[in-house]
Amino acid sequence: MIIIAGKLWMDTADRDAYLAACSEAVERARAAEGCLDFALSADAIERDRINVYERWETDEALARFRGAGPEPEQAARIREAEVHKYRISAVEAP
Question: Of 3.40.50.720, 3.90.180.10, 3.40.50.620, 3.30.70.100, which CATH number belongs to 2-87?
């Protein structure tokens, strides 16, 4: 299993509009073969931060969805990003 997790920062005034513009991409991701979960959410404390969480069955499923990555206009709105890929070998109850 693959987890993509991290955070994005952008201008505070643009965060909510950015998230609204991403709703279609979230729907496409969740419908994609191999996607187990996909969420982008406003951070409750930092007004300029978006939290990223994705869970995929395989690298191939992730690559099929991602393609070349975000559109240039979308990427230009992000001031800073700290997002990582994690490979999970086991899942247990908390």
Answer: 3.30.70.100
